Amino acid sequence: MRDRSRGTAGNPPHRKLHFDGEASGLEVRDLTVTYGTEAGPLDTVRNVSLDIAPGEIYGLVGESGSGKTTLARAVVRYLPSNGRIKGGSLRLDGVDLLELTKAEVRRVWGSDITMVHQDPNTSVNPSMPVGEQIAEMARVHLDMPRARARRKAIEMLTKVRMSDPATVARRYAHQLSGGQLQRVLIAIALTTNPRLLIMDEPTTALDVTTEAVILDLVRDLLSEYQTAVLYITHNLGVVARLCHRVGVIYAGEMMEQGPLRGVFKEMLHPYTLGLLGSVPRVDVDKRDIVLNTIPGYIPQPDSLPAGCIFAPRCRGAEDACRAVRPLLVSDDGGTGHLTACRRWQALRRAPEEFATTQKKKDFVEPTTGDVVLEASRVKKYFPVSRVKLSDVLRGRRPMVRAVDDISVRVRKSFTMGIVGESGCGKTTLARCVAGLEKATSGEILLEQIKLPSTVAKRPADLLKKIQMVFQNPDASLNPHHTVGASVARPLVLLRHLSKGQIEERVRELFQAVNLPRDYIARLPHELSGGEKQRVAIARAFATDPVLMICDEPISSLDVSVQASLMNLLAELQDTKGTSYLFISHDLAAVRHLSDWIAVIYLGRLWEIGSALEVFTPPQHPYTEALLSALPIPDPDAKQNRIRLHGNVPSAVNIPSGCRFHPRCPRKIGEICEKEEPPWQEHRRWHRICCHIPVEELIEKQKGGGR
Amino acid sequence: MTIYLLRRVGFILLTLFLASIIIFAATQALPGDVAQVMLGQFATEQALANLREELGLNRPAYQQYFGWLGRFITGDWGNSMVSRQPVRPLIAARIRNSAMLALMALTFYVPLGILFGVIAALNREKPLDQIISGFSMAFVGLPEFVTGLLLISAFAFALAVLPANSSIAPNTSFREAFPSLILPAITVSLTSLGYVTRMTRAGTIDILNTDYVRAAELKGLPRAQVLMRHVLRNSLLPTVTVVAMGIGYLIGGLIITEAVFGYPGLGRLLVYGIQRRDVILIQACSMVVVTVYSLSNLFADILYSILNPRIRYR
User: Which parts of A266-318 fold into alpha helices (H)?
Assistant: First the structure.
């Protein structure tokens, strides 16, 4: 809580007090934000200018540490106590926001400027019904009496297309899904019809299918409002789907800014080019290209290079680039396309000099190679932790059927990718294979040998063969051990090498994952997220496993870091012949790394085949929906608009017949509700589990949407 | 929620059952013969044997245990070995006294503790917070016999406004007992106040740092509304639990404070029983204390589940 000196409690709302000029949107000029730190003041955002017209959605893209959230907080004048605006101006509809007193700023919050925050699950008060959280906006800012405010809340919930808004209004946060909560936050933000709406990564915490629905909602809804929208994200695909104009921010400075198509199609800055090149695509994979990476790290505000701040990481940098900090200049095209690269004309002529998306070798038939892992009919049921009284009285014992009869096969030096929404059972399946969970039934064979169900029962020479890389390297590396010791640990436990041999092997492993040798003696907190994940990968490779289980290994990292890790995984597979079980909710990443893809939903397999086939129609309606939800960083990408509505049903009360039928956009009738669908063969390496015949799926999918 | 509460009640019954075994076993292990204690050193062998037979002391231990448990549950708590009077009315009167003291102490330290805790949290790491946190640490650390004696010398002797001895007569009304309750209540409060303050401070700091409080501020709500509706509603949950659980301590565990002031509470009755080796009184008293603790825990659980919608709407 800040600003306690000038409370505004009891002040009547002054909706039109300051804003009597024409609606001209947000105007940020040369904004510089400073944080006071132990090392002295740090300018984390420097000389940033941007304009957002009323009704316009402006996408601000940047990696972590780029200053995008600081910028947003500065715009709403909600900086932490050690932060302040050092220079520049901020005007909203002609009003100078920097001249407002703190009490006035508080009046602007909620009425003229509203915000939608990143994580809907933590941004809604858990002990107040959600409707009340909308209604209090209406009471405070629109001066509505209680009953009218309640009606307004239901009206806003209807507006954000919440089904059964009157009931939802009485619900608490824990009774709603992430997607529903994000609708609530959007409803709150639009209640007062604000002049400026700031959305800070509003879909990052959501599943791709929910994200697509929310993005559609935001786009459709905002077209009715004359609100200027600042949309902050790291996801280029989201920007391409939603925004009118884009700014690319790097280490606190604007690198490029312009209309969406201009920035995505004729980018004038090597950083933009690098970012776009590092996003995996759905039409090519690891066998076709090596993803572009941006070498080096984002500079800290206290150690900025003298010239262009991107020059140390730029493939096209010349001596002149390193000498003088370039200004943001226009390309003179009249569209307001600005770039901070002094070589933008060279970049426009020959982009290949600035970033490389290397071609790779030829296609290999994905059925070659011995079967390494054969998991058949694996089931994993968990007892329900919150038992209902009615169930106990009826003598029922409800189970969460997390994995319900899944069979997969992984061949030597190939990757089996597993995709599905969160809660579909993909992680549980991986944990059963790894022996971290005891499968309820089913058989798992590794190189023809039946695996004992849990790690504790597996002998060391079997443990050696299966290794795992987890999502969060912070949680999987011991913070008190040097990273070298973490990598040496499996060598000590599972391979019984001598001290000298271990040291040598650790050095080899660090080299294999492209980490400098002096990192061996460092502690995890001295490494960046991407580096820590490299250590985790080195540790997994320490025992020369035949199978690596990667559970969302790149999901928590920035796009350019994701790209370098995907390249590393592909390269290590090439040289060592390891097989991967790669689990991710990111379809593009799975497509890039996988030779085979298995699509799972509610604990069951629905489609399995070579990556190419799975991504080429015909597809299972669920796969189709996942693919059409995927935000592709290309404004011209043609995607069917197939959306899944409602929430993933609980794995306790699994729907009858085809368990996808309640959400299936292509449901054909009663048969879907009553009978389990059959498996259909399509070509050699592709099977689909659906009531709709493959030929019909082809027809339907040619036709686009419904 | 029903099943949650049923489970809690079941758990408490189990606790009481286990406690009864431990209490019975412990009193059995006390040195000396019960009959001897009752009749004194000069009793004849015949009188001792008769009493043993009458009390069932010759039967196997488990039979004695279940006999005792059954009588306890049905309300027959036996007669004191020392006074030969029924112990139940004696204990009931002491519970009433302890409850009066507990009520008094709660009205002192709960509102103050919450107030200080919230003030400290809002001024986190500023001088005001450091003063409050420093004092609450000091009071948690000070033993009750020190604060009690200091208070007595100040208010009873130096100022002579309050009684030094709080040994009220049985069945004194609250109004009559009031002056005698003030000093012991303050003594207890000083220790518990620090605890509640620190609990509230920690809880409030946690909630102030949540995304939803940040969101509520950026909604432009008046500060008081943010604090009352968004912060305190959530941040006082742990405090409420701690206070409710503290009731057990206030009623059954104030042995030192009651001794310092000579206050006739339940804690002192238990000590008295132990001093006299009054096994019947010890057993009944201990069971009552355990029950009071368990009930205050149950009360805390119920209160928590009512205040927390995540449990209420399971």
Answer: 270-278
Distances from the Cα of B294 to the Cα of A284, B15, B89, B95, B249, angstroms? 65, 8, 21, 15, 11
d(CA B63, CA A59): 80
Please report the pLDDT score of residue A706 as a whole number: 42
Is A111's Cβ below 8 Å from some Cβ in B? yes
CA–CA separation, A93 and A22 (whole Å)? 6
Query: Which residue from B218, B221, B230 is facing A78, i.e. has the nearest CB?
Result: B218
Q: Rounded to the nearest 5°, which phi and psi values hold at A216?
A: -60, -45
Of B3, B218, B310, the CB nearest to A389: B3
CA separation (Å) from A596 to A209, A591, A608, A624?
22, 9, 7, 17
B62 vs A: CB within 8 A: no
pLDDT, tens digit, 9 for 90 and up, residues B171-197? 888 888 888 899 999 999 988 898 899
Residues of B in contact with A1 (CB under 8 A): 122, 208, 213, 217, 223, 226-227
The pLDDT of A110-120, averaged and rounded, is 92
Q: Which residue of A has its CA nearest to B221?
A: A140
Q: What is the 3-state secondary structure (H, E, C) of chain B?
A: CHHHHHHHHHHHHHHHHHHHHHHHHHHHHCCCCHHHHHHCCCCCHHHHHHHHHHHCCCCCHHHHHHHHHHHHHCCCCCECCCCCCEHHHHHHHHHHHHHHHHHHHHHHHHHHHHHHHHHHHHCCCCHHHHHHHHHHHHHHHCCHHHHHHHHHHHHHHHCCCCCCCCCCCCCCCHHHHHHHHHHHHHHHHHHHHHHHHHHHHHHHHHHHCCHHHHHHHHCCCCHHHHHHHHHHHHHCHHHHHHHHHHHHHHHHCCHHHHHHHCCCCHHHHHHHHHHHCCHHHHHHHHHHHHHHHHHHHHHHHHHHHHHCHHHHCC
If one counts every other C-beta atom within 10 angstroms of the C-beta of residue A379, the result is 16
Given CB atoms, is A119 within the 8 Å cutoff of chain B? yes
A114–B122 CB contact, under 8 Å: no
| Pairs across A and B, CB distance < 8 A | 101
Write the residue in B219, B224, B227 that is nearest to A109 by C-beta: B219
Q: Do B225 and A140 touch (CB under 8 A)?
A: yes
Please report, for chain A, the start and end positions of each structural domain, with discontinuous segments joined by +: 26-243, 270-353, 615-702
Q: Rounded distance, CA A681 to CA A609, Å?
A: 10
Q: How many Å lie between the alpha carbon of A565 and the closest alpha carbon of chain B?
A: 31
> Would you tell me how many other CB atoms lie within 10 Å of the CB of residue B138?
11
Task: Say whether pTM exceeds 0.90.
Answer: no
Q: How confident is the model at residue A5 (pLDDT cuts 50, 70, 90)?
A: very low
Predicted interface score ipTM higher than 0.85: no
- CB-CB: which of A108, A124, A174 is closest to B310? A174
CA A641 to chain centre: 20
Torsion-angle region of residue B20: left (phi > 0), alpha (psi -120 to 50) or beta?
alpha
Q: Is A96 left (phi over 0), alpha (psi -120 to 50) or beta?
A: beta
Interface of B with A in 179-238 (CB under 8 A): 208, 210-227, 229-230, 233-234
Note the pLDDT tens digit of each residue in B230-246: 999 899 888 988 888 88
CB contact under 8 A, A117 and B314: no
Our CA-based measurement puts residue A270 at a distance from the nearest CA of chain B, in whole angstroms, of: 36
Task: Look up residue A26 and give its amino acid.
Answer: L
Which is it for strands A596-601 and A415-419: parallel, antiparallel or unpaired?
Answer: parallel
Which of B122, B206, B223, B307 to mutate to probe the A interface, most A CBs <10 Å? B223
Looking at domain B88-312, its CATH class is mainly alpha
CATH number of A26-243: 3.40.50.300
- Using an 8 Å Cβ cutoff, are A132 and A153 in contact? yes
